[in-house]
Every structure is written in structure tokens, then in C-alpha cells.
Amino acid sequence: MKFVDEANIHIRAGKGGNGCVSFHREKFITKGGPNGGDGGDGGSVWLQADENLNTLIEYKFKRSYAAESGQPGRGRDMTGAKGEDLVLLVPVGTAVRDLDTDEQLADLTEHGMKVKVAQGGWHGLGNTRFKSSVNRAPRQSTNGSLGEERNLQLELKVIADVGLLGLPNAGKSTFIRSVSAAKPKVADYPFTTLVPNLGVVRVDHLNSFVIADIPGLIEGAAEGAGLGIHFLKHIVRTRVLLHLVDMAPYDNTTPEDNAQIIINELEKFSPTLAQRERWLVLNKMDLIPAEDRAAAVARVVKALDWQGPVFDISAMNQQGTKPLTQSIMQHLQKQRELLAENEDAARADAEERALVEEEARARIEEVKQMRRAGRDADDDDDDDDHDVEVVYAPY
């Protein structure tokens, strides 16, 4: 199934049913009085997170959704039927934004989480409601109100504790295969990974965390090169970033230069995200002679002026992967305990996440506008008939 992580839809809640003007008519009963019933409420539109879904593909082709309207009231004091609510299922991790007001409506981060995004219209009143001692035969009623209409943007961001960064062919998919049960495609050519992959890493029987693998970045990704930075939004929720570096690149580049490319692109994408906890993971160490490994690691650390944790591994042989996953688990547990005990830390963490998402959204929109401008320029270049002088040959 095609992976779709963004969709724009139009939703409309149901209209409330109109009230009824009716009078009691029965044999041998004169002046029976008003008996017009109220209309029914219109159905509302809800979004509900479902862990069995992993893409927004359904909303890519059908863009308009409407809840059922309420039925009008009837005589004999019969109330119209209420319109049925419309529940739209979305993957866990879907953020909902109103395109007209740019308001964040919800962030569905747990299975079963449900939010109302459009309120159904209220029912109209029948003429029975207007009966009084001085108005015994009312002929007025009210119409039901319209339901809310909205243009929504659905944006899926995978839920993961750890995110993987690196150039194509750095070994990210091989790493996630070696530490989890996930089986992403692995091949000996770049851009094997085209969509994000998730894997659950079980450190022991009681402790586990989720790791996300995104397509590799290349130089110029912040300007739309390669697969661009579109998929970087899937790591904005992570607690730790693992920067995988190929220590034996197949071309003439150096590991330190390749690592610097990713750092530069990450800073362009979101300066706040670039300041998040990031660990350097030097992969494919088995391809370097044992006597040269320490010097190779020291050279990369010095060139990057790296101050954070450093791990040298071989994902293919699972060499060094267990100490790495154990360290990640310990770090995540400490973070969870800190956020649970310290309200100030939890508040600062929430503010930082909101800032990262805002920067990411602004950067992605900027790249989209650059691409649109490029396409428009190409169309203008093709339309050059006005510069051609047409000469008609005589018969």
C-alpha cells in the first residue's frame, strides 16, 4: 500500500432538522391545539485514532465528507430523528489543523483517542414550543441551524522514541533490521528506503522502545534535492536522534564530510531539532582493519568537534548494537522519570516540541513553494511561441 502522510479534506456536519407547524386534528375533538414536533440534531464529524492504520491513503482520493442531517419534526409531537455522527478513522500520530484559521485542532497520539472537529447543527423548534396562555394556536416554528464546515489538513507523524539520520547507504535499514523484528528493504544501492519504517526494539522482557528509519538525506535536501526533507517531520516527536555515519563510503568522500552534510541539513530544517539529544553512531566498522579503527573514530570525532556520545558498530554483524540499545533504553527511562516528576521540565519539553513542529512546518512549506515556483518557471520557458516569427510561403 502506498504511504501517504498528508491529506487535505473538507468536512461538513449535518444540518439540524426544521421544526414542524401542526395542529391536533381528530374526530369529536375541536381545537385540539398545536402538536408540531422539534427537528432532530445534525450529526457531528469526529476523528478517531486507530492503531491498525498506518497511512492516510484513503483521504488522498476522497476529499469531501459530510455527516447526516437531522430529520424535520412531524405532527403528533413527533421529534425528527437525529443525524448519525460521522467517525473518520486516522492513524495514530495524526495531527489535525484547520487550513482556514491555521489552528491546531488535535494531535491524536493514542489508540482510540477521539476528537470532534465539526459540530452538528441544532434542531429547530416545533410550534408546540410556542404555546402559551395568550397564544393558544401558534403558527411559528424555527429552522434547524447549519452544521460546521471546515477545511482540514491531516498530517501523519509516526510515533517513535528514537529517530535515525544519515546519508543514503549509511546502513540505517540494516541497523533497524539487526535490533528489531522490522524487515525494511535492504540493497546495495542508495535510496532503498522510500518511506519511514518503524521497529520495536526489545531490550529485555519488560523494556522496549520504538525506532524510526526515514529515507536518507543528501546535500541540498533543505532546498528539495533528492527525496527532500519531507520525511524529516517524522522524527520531530523522537527523544533521541541517532546519526549513522558510513565509515567505509563507497565513493571518494570521507566519513567526517558526510556527517557534516547531515548536520547542515538538519540545522536548515529546524535549528531547535538540531539541538536535541543526538548520538553519533559510526557504522560498518568491520570494513576497517582492527588496528586502524581507533584512529578512524578519533579522526571523525575531532573533525566534527563532537561532544556527545559516540558508538562504533557494525549493523550487519550486530557488533556493538546491544550496548547501544541498552544505553538508549537507560537514557529514555531517565527522561521519562524526569518528565513525570518535574512539571517545569515537562512544560519546557512540550514547548520545545511545539517549536520544532512549527519550524518543520514552515520549512516544508517553503520547499513546496520553491518547487511550485520552479515548475511555473519551466512552464514559462516552454511557452515561447511569441518569440517565433511565422513566415507563410506563397502558393
UniProtKB/TrEMBL annotation:
Necessary cofactors: Mg(2+)
Positions of Mg(2+) binding: 173, 193
Compositionally skewed regions (Acidic residues) per UniProt: 377-387
Gene3D superfamilies noted in UniProt: GTP1/OBG domain, P-loop containing nucleotide triphosphate hydrolases
Subcellular compartments: Cytoplasm
Superkingdom of the organism of origin: Bacteria
Enzyme class: hydrolase
Chief location of this protein within or outside the cell: cytoplasm
Region of interest called Disordered, as start-end residue ranges on this chain: 368-395
Pfam families membership: GTP1_OBG, MMR_HSR1
Free-text function comment from the UniProt entry: An essential GTPase which binds GTP, GDP and possibly (p)ppGpp with moderate affinity, with high nucleotide exchange rates and a fairly low GTP hydrolysis rate. Plays a role in control of the cell cycle, stress response, ribosome biogenesis and in those bacteria that undergo differentiation, in morphogenesis control.
NCBIfam families to which the protein is assigned, alphabetical: Obg_CgtA, PRK12297.1, PRK12299.1
Complexes and interactors: Monomer.
Family, per entry: Belongs to the TRAFAC class OBG-HflX-like GTPase superfamily. OBG GTPase family.
Protein name per its UniProtKB record: GTPase Obg
Protein's organism: Saccharospirillum mangrovi
